[in-house]
Amino acid sequence: MALGRDHELHTRRRSRNLGVGLVLGAFVLIVFGITIAKLSSGQMMEAFDHTIRPSLAEQDK
What we know:
With 61 residues, the protein is mainly alpha-helical. The chain has one helix and no strands.
């Protein structure tokens, strides 16, 4: 049995899904690029994690 021609609704849905997929892929690439740029800057990225670290403690003079 041969498959028939796609209905117009399926064509529009496929086009919309392709657009959403491209936007999602672009978003992932942007987030990945920002992450790589922040990590490759060479600075230590320290956050508040409820532990005492000498690098963040005040220095006694």
